[in-house]
Amino acid sequence: EVQLVDSGGGLVQPGGSLRLSCAASGFTFSIYTMSWVRQAPGKGPEWVSTINTGGDMPRHADSVKGRFTISRDNAKNTLYLQMNSLKPEDTAVYYCAKAYVISGHYFLSDWGQGTQVAVSS
After folding, report:
1. Which residue pairs from 37-46 have beta carbons closer than 8 angstroms and sit at least 24 positions apart in sequence?
2. Nearest to 101 by CA among 93, 109, 92
3. Is 26 helix (H, G, I), strand (E, B) or coil?
4. Secondary element (H or E) of residue 82
5. Which terminus of the chain has a lower count of CB atoms within 10 Å, N or C?
6. Are 47 and 63 in contact, with CB atoms under 8 Å apart?
7. Burial, 94: exposed, middle or buried (Cβ in 10 Å; 0-12, 13-18, 19+)?
8. 39-92, pLDDT tens digit by residue?
């Protein structure tokens, strides 16, 4: 079965950096678009970033553009999110998710268990 294991979260001060990882198994990782989403306490999920199968077409939400970088290593079946210049508003549980692409639209499924990121001084 599909398994996505998120890791790398923790407590960091504003302006700091963190790298999240998502280990995938149970499916052919290299042929699926992957995404990161986050959910702050008491709020709904927010899309953060998406990357295509080849890893050469990353997209990021305006709120994180220029600070976060999504990447993937298909040989290792792993998705990454490098987060720099972190802000308190980045505090959330971060999830990796497998995506289906239909007519240019993305449908996220098979989410990981989530990893907590807390940005505070």
Report:
1. 37/94, 37/95, 37/97, 37/108, 37/111, 38/90, 38/92, 38/93, 38/94, 38/95, 38/117, 39/92, 39/93, 39/95, 39/114, 40/91, 40/92, 41/92, 45/95, 46/92
2. 109
3. coil
4. strand 78-83
5. N
6. no
7. buried
8. 999 999 999 999 999 999 999 999 999 999 999 999 999 999 999 999 999 999
**Collapsed DSSP state (helix, strand, coil) of residue 46:** strand
The per-residue pLDDT of the chain, averaged, comes to 97
Q: Is 88 left (phi over 0), alpha (psi -120 to 50) or beta?
A: alpha
Evaluate whether 49 touches 70 at the Cβ level (below 8 Å).
yes
Reply yes or no on whether the pLDDT at 101 is more than 90.
no
Q: Is 81 helix (H, G, I), strand (E, B) or coil?
A: strand
Side chain identity, residue 45 = P
Query: How many residues does this entry show for the chain?
Result: 121
Q: Which candidate, 91, 104, 84, 99, places its Cα nearest to that of 36?
A: 99
Longest dimension (CA), the chain: 44
